[in-house]
Amino acid sequence: MPNSHSRFPSSQAPRLLGRLCKHFSHKIEARWSEHEGLLRFSIGECVLQADEHALHLACTAPSAAELDELQEVIRRHLQGFAQVDELVLQWH
Q1: pTM over 0.90
Q2: Of 16, 51, 55, 83, which has fewest CB within 10 angstroms of its CB?
């Protein structure tokens, strides 16, 4: 299965993790604690880990197209919660 990971530097990573997971929990399966989270979408899943310096994201999807879509969903929502004008995540 295609997968990717990215890192978003932030001293507010645990707060961002909680906000993302709580937001998505209204529509999809979402589990989280202060430093770890799991989001299960119909197109794939994203594992989140927060430390004092960054939010780490690891996404997996059945196809490359679904992985691209999942990455964009995560990027768009993270951009809103982080309150930045344009968020560019480097996916590897």
Answers
A1: yes
A2: 83
Indicate the SS3 state at residue 50: strand
In a domain, 73, yes or no: yes
Pair of tokens at residue 19: 């906000």
Total tally of structural domains belonging to the chain: 1
pLDDT tens for 52-74 read: 999 999 999 999 999 999 999 99
Q: CATH number of the domain that 41 lies in?
A: 3.30.310.50
CB-CB contact of 21 with 79 (8 Å): no
Can you give the pLDDT at residue 8? 95
Give the C-alpha separation, 21 to 49, whole Å.
Answer: 11
